[in-house]
Design a protein that fits this description.
Layout (H helix, E strand, L loop, with lengths): L1 H36 L2 H5 L11 H8 L15 E7 L7 H8 L6 E6 L29 H15 L4 E7 L4 E2 L3 H9 L41 E3 H9 L4 H7 L6 H13 L10 E2 L19 H9 L3 E3 L2 E3 L5 E2 L7 H11 L3
Parallel strand pairs: 1-2, 1-3, 6-9
Antiparallel strand pairs: 3-5, 4-9, 7-8
Helix pairs in contact: 3-5, 5-7
Length: 347
């Protein structure tokens, strides 16, 4: 009986020790997780799922924070944020997939489409689950600028994003990823052109109600399709000075997407702007929209003309690499673009 009694005590003691060890390990793991949650690397990690419950005011507030201590406290690889403003499908996404292939750590993708649109990108796609919370947009209204600010704000939440490109579903790439990446990351300027159009479609759209924030001498016009660095992106997102005036007084025929950002940045950040665009468009056909290129338009001669027959300034020097993107390309152009991309665009 004594032997059985001692065996029973030994078993109970062993079980007790095991329970204590388990609890200690669980406590240590929790403490480690709590330490990780307050570490710098965990704080700046981007959200794995882009859908969130923040409204625009909360989103813009959160995304406009700027680190005040200079110097890199953590190691991070600068990324380019490719922001797609679209109604729904991205018919040219197979071309973009080829462009992105092999460079996963150097880019981020954000898509603003109409609410309710459900994409069907496969798990292997670069575009899989890259939708952000969106709202209805209307051409020529402030809602387009809202969508662009929404894209910028969501992209700013990933602190590794250094450059931000606004694109549409009809945009294509004119260079390979390495060229585009180096060109943007090394640029000292943002690519937005606030030009002084003194005609009826420029200064003729100015409203005196914009005073005193915007004098007519500061009124500018520019392309909707911009590329900006992080400093300029934060300037756009945090603005509460000019936005109310544009929302109230820039009504059709004054188009906010052509005037709000160019005017505001011309006033606030003129030294950071390259005063040119890197997105090619053809305005040679009359109308309020640029030319759309169909499948029959896509030839090597046509594409070479866009790529090679320009000169511009880049970081104070003349270059022949002026356009990195182009629009508007119809879905029917995809097959020809996929065929010509390897020999012309090198991707």
């Amino acid at each position: 009986m004594k032997i059985l009694y001692f065996l029973l005590c030994f078993l109970l003691l062993s079980v007790g020790v095991r329970i204590l060890q388990t609890r200690r390990n669980f406590s240590n793991n929790n403490n480690n997780e709590e330490k990780d949650n307050t570490s710098l690397s965990n704080m700046i990690n981007p959200m794995s799922i882009l859908l969130h419950q923040m409204n625009d005011t909360q989103l813009f507030w959160k995304s406009s924070f700027i680190p005040r201590i200079k110097g890199n406290q953590i190691h991070r690889m600068p990324k380019i944020a490719f922001m797609f403003l679209t109604q729904g499908p991205l018919p040219l996404h197979p071309l973009w997939e080829k462009f992105f292939e092999g460079h996963r750590s150097l880019y981020s993708i954000y898509i603003h489409s109409l609410p309710g649109y459900v994409p069907d990108f496969p798990l292997s796609s670069s575009f899989y689950q890259r939708q952000i919370p969106s709202q209805v947009t209307k051409w020529g209204e402030i809602s387009l600028c809202d969508a662009e600010r929404r894209l910028l704000a969501n992209a700013l939440l990933d602190i590794s994003n250094e450059r931000f490109v606004l694109l549409s579903e009809s945009c294509i790439l004119l260079r390979n990823f390495t060229t585009v990446y180096n060109y943007l990351i090394e640029s000292r300027h943002s690519f937005l052109y606030p030009y002084n159009d003194q005609g009826p479609d420029g200064r003729g759209r100015y409203h005196p109600g914009l005073l005193p924030e915007v004098n007519i001498s500061y009124w500018r016009k520019g392309s909707q399709w911009f590329e900006v660095n992080r400093e300029v992106a934060i300037e756009i997102v945090k603005d509460t000075k000019y936005y109310p005036k544009f929302e109230k007084f820039c009504k059709p025929r004054c188009y906010n997407d052509e005037h709000y950002f160019p005017t505001m940045l011309y006033i606030e950040k003129p030294n950071l702007l390259a005063n040119r665009s890197i997105t090619y468009v053809d305005w040679s056909r009359r109308g309020s929209h640029p030319a759309t290129f169909e499948g029959n338009d896509i030839t090597d001669v046509f594409l070479k003309k866009i790529i090679d027959e320009q000169s511009c300034e880049y970081n104070g020097k003349t270059t022949h690499i002026c356009f990195l993107f182009a629009r508007k390309f119809a879905p029917s152009s995809l097959d020809s673009l996929l065929r010509l991309a390897p020999q012309l665009f090198w991707y």
